[in-house]
Each structure stands twice: as C-alpha cells, then as structure tokens.
Design brief:
5-stranded mixed sheet, disordered N terminus, CbiD-like, 370 residues, alpha/beta
C-alpha cells in the first residue's frame, strides 16, 4: 500500500475567523431547529467551497442554542489560531424573517469611520457577515417564515488577542475582528497583513487626516510615535514590508504627507527601489551603500568593505567609526526620497525618520514637494 506523501511543513492551509463563525452559527441554528447541535457541520465558504467543521461544544433548548468552532489557521502564524469562535442564537417570535447579527464579548466594536462598518457596531466584516447569514438561511428558510433569530458572536480572550493586532489603531476596541474574504487562510499568507495596511491608510483618510506615518515594525513605530507625539493615532500605520501598497493607497485616497520610519536595512531596500522590502526578496544592495559612503567622504578601502559585506547595518557601523554617520544617513534618506519621487512624481511631501535597533534617532530628513 502506497504511503500518502506528507505535505511539506508550512503548506497547510487554514480557515478564517469568518468561516469558523459561519460554521458555529449554522450548527447552533441547526440545534435550535432540530433539538440537537451536530458534532460537525458542512459549511459553504465565501469562495463557494464546502468544508466540514468540527463542533467542539454545543447545547440547545427550545429557544436558544450554542456552538463553538476552534479556529485552525493552518501553517499561517496568526494570533487568532486556536480561538474559540462562539455563537449563541435565540429565537425571536415577534420578528419573523429577521436575522440580527451582533458581537458579544471578545468581538471588537467599531469607533471610527472608514472601515465600511457602522460606528458602534460589531467588527464583523461585510463578506463574513453575508456568509454567516447565507449559511443560516440555507437551513432555516422554513423557521424564518414564522420567527426571527438573534445571532451573537463572541470570542473568549478576544480582547487579549486584539492587542497583537492593529485593531486599536483602526478604531476597533474590545476584541478581534471577524474577517475573511474567501474563508481560507493560505500558509504564511501576507494577504491579511497587506489588507490591514491598506485599511489603515484608508482609515486615516476617512478621519480627514493628511498625513500617514508608515513604519516597518514595532520598534520603528514606537520611535515615530515618540518623535511625533502631536499626530492623531490613526496617522500611524505599521506597514511592515508593504511600502508599495501603502503608498498606492495613500495616492488613491489623497493623503499628501508621507512620513516613513525605518532602520538602515529597510531604508536601503526602499532606496534601491523595492516596493516589498521583505528580507527573503532581493538582498540589500551594498554597492549602493558603498556609493553613498563614497559620496560623503569615505575612502575607497572602506567603500570596498561595505560593498563586499552583506548587511546595511555594517555600512552604518563603519561610517560611525569614521565620524561620517550623520552625513551618511542623511544621504541615504535623500536617496530614499529621490527613488520614491521617481515612482510617485509630484505626489507627496516626504519625511524620513531613521532609528537604530534600540530606537535611538539617527536621521530626520524632510523634503517638500516641488
């Protein structure tokens, strides 16, 4: 008998919070209708695929039902992996045909415009919202002819999970968002993070802000917040490696002022024209750094050492030893701006804030649009 080949590590797909919630909702409604919450439920995803989800907890009586699905994010690193997507349903005898979907404990609440959701409502995005209702209607058409349903989604520890997301920056408080456009989480997918970057810029624009501060990570974000304490919190968008999508969105929504906070490595990637600055993509162009070093007075042997090394950090350390670091970092920031101006001509006013690995300021470069 032939052995089944194992999937390579890092390739196992998972399911979104939205897909898991839809499954729990369908199972709970099934329990309300039939008197028994099933152990598993066949659910249609937003992409029209059918998937069987396991129900780990279920209970019902004549007017209420409860079901829980544990989110499996597959091989995608996600703070909501193993979250217990919980749905409680209650019959509404006087509201036939209605399905009232709301958020309970651990599901975020919307406090700012710009997300396409009602301020004050639950952070259940439009696609999963529709998917939850569609799955309920598949099994409850007869039931809904006589009464309605109140469907409450909750996530134990959702408030703690939300602290590892960008939710608070987007004006979502008190818990996680119920997300997912297809229902599937692809292994090591960057789609969710990219979407949050785009959403962050859109939220800033919807608050009538004319500035976004794009940072490459947590340390640079803390550095820029400390440097620019008077800016609204919605201005700060942790873009990670997604410079291109962030700037494309800023252009689309009319943001005028771009502040980029980064360290020497990511800024070098930007200077060399990378729109996605992930370490696994093109390597740092140390020849470019050698040219910048030469332009501020470094001798040929130093420039050769910089060119032959693999890291941008090494270039900075060599220039610091020579007392040329301030000129070097300013020149690197200028190169970043010139590269971006080539890609987005006459579009933005740029400020570059550079810090070291401990969050100490190395450069503050500003150039106004001509």
């Amino acid at each position: 008998m032939a052995m089944r080949a194992k999937k390579p590590k890092g390739t196992r797909k998972g399911y979104t919070t939205g897909a898991c919630t839809a499954a729990a909702a369908k199972a709970a409604v099934m329990g309300l209708i039939t008197g028994r919450v099933p152990d598993e439920i066949n659910t249609q995803l937003p992409n029209q695929e059918w998937v069987i989800f396991q129900i780990i907890e279920g209970a019902c009586d004549s007017s209420t039902a409860h079901a829980v699905v544990i989110k499996d994010a597959g091989d995608d690193p996600d703070c909501t992996h193993q979250a217990h997507l919980t749905v409680d349903v209650q019959s509404l005898p006087k509201q036939k045909g209605k399905i009232l979907l709301q958020g309970g404990k651990g599901v975020g609440k919307i406090t700012m415009r710009g997300l396409g959701l009602e301020v004050g409502g639950a952070a259940i995005n439009p696609v999963p919202r529709k998917n939850i209702i569609d799955n309920i209607q598949q099994i409850a058409a007869d039931f809904l002819q006589h009464q309605g349903l109140e469907v409450t989604v909750s996530v134990p520890d959702g408030e703690l999970m939300a602290k590892k997301t960008l939710n608070q920056r987007l004006g979502i408080i008190g818990g996680i968002s119920i997300l997912g456009t297809t229902g599937i989480v692809h292994p090591y997918s960057t789609a969710a993070f990219r979407a949050s970057v785009v959403q962050g810029v859109e939220v800033a624009a919807n608050q009538k802000l004319d500035t976004v501060v794009l940072t490459t990570g947590g340390r640079t974000e803390k550095f820029t917040i400390k440097t620019l304490p008077d800016l609204h919190q919605a201005c700060f968008v942790q873009m990670g490696d997604f410079l291109g999508p962030a700037l494309d969105t800023a252009k689309a929504v009319g943001i005028q002022n771009i502040v980029i906070g980064g360290m020497v490595g990511k800024l070098t990637k930007m200077a060399q024209g990378e729109k996605i600055t992930h370490a696994r993509r093109n390597p740092v162009n140390t020849q470019l750094l050698a040219e910048i070093a030469a332009s501020v007075g470094a001798k040929q042997n130093v420039c050769e050492d910089i060119s032959n090394n693999e890291t941008a950090r090494y270039a900075g350390e060599r220039m610091e030893e020579l007392g040329l670091s301030e000129l070097f970092y300013q020149a690197l920031c200028k190169r970043v701006v010139n590269t971006l101006k080539t890609r987005y001509p006459n579009q933005f006013n740029y400020t570059i804030l550079m810090c070291d690995f401990d969050g100490n300021a190395l450069a503050h470069y500003q150039e106004k649009k001509q």
